[in-house]
Design brief:
4 helices, 6 strands, Transcription Regulator spoIIAA, alpha/beta, single chain, 6-stranded mixed beta sheet
Length: about 140
C-alpha cells in the first residue's frame, strides 16, 4: 500500500502556524488560534480583541498564507465579543492576501456590529459572511 507523500513545504508550514499561535497572546480577554485543516486555513477569535499590536501577527499570517496555497480561509468570529481596529486590520490584511492568491474566504459571525465593520472596510465584498458553518461550500 502506497503512503501519501508529504511535500517539503508542509512541515515548515505547520511550524509557521505553531509559531504564530505562540505569538498570538496579545489580549488577555481574547483567544486567537490558527489551524490547518486539510486544504483550509482556519482562524478563530474568541472573546474581545481590543488591544493594539496585531500588525505583527498580520505580517506573520501573510507569510503563512503565501508559503503554501490553500483552497479556503475560514475566519470564525462566532464567539468573538468585540473587534477593535487593530485586529480588524489584521483580518483585512489576511482576507486580501488570501483572496489575491485565488482562495475562498468565509467569515462566520452573527454579530451585526462586526458585519457592519467588515462592510465599512470593504471586506464584505471580498468574502462570504455567514451565520454558521452550515453555509460553507468550498469549491
Amino acid at each position: 500500500m502506497a503512503h501519501p507523500v508529504e511535500d517539503d513545504a508542509t512541515p515548515l508550514y505547520n511550524a509557521r502556524i505553531a509559531e504564530w499561535n505562540k505569538e498570538a497572546h496579545i489580549d488577555l480577554g481574547c483567544r486567537i488560534h490558527l489551524a490547518r485543516v486539510g486544504d483550509t486555513l482556519v482562524l478563530s477569535i474568541v472573546g474581545a480583541a481590543e488591544r493594539n499590536g496585531y500588525q505583527f501577527l498580520a505580517e506573520k499570517a501573510i507569510e503563512i498564507i503565501n508559503s503554501e496555497r490553500k483552497k479556503a480561509l475560514i475566519v470564525d468570529l462566532s464567539l468573538c465579543e468585540r473587534l477593535s481596529s487593530s485586529p480588524l486590520g489584521m483580518l483585512g490584511m489576511m482576507i486580501m492576501a488570501f483572496e489575491n492568491r485565488g482562495g475562498q474566504v468565509f467569515v462566520i459571525t452573527g454579530d451585526p456590529q462586526i458585519r457592519k465593520s467588515l462592510k465599512i472596510l470593504g471586506l464584505a465584498e471580498r468574502c462570504r459572511i455567514i451565520d454558521d458553518v452550515a453555509g460553507i461550500e468550498i469549491a
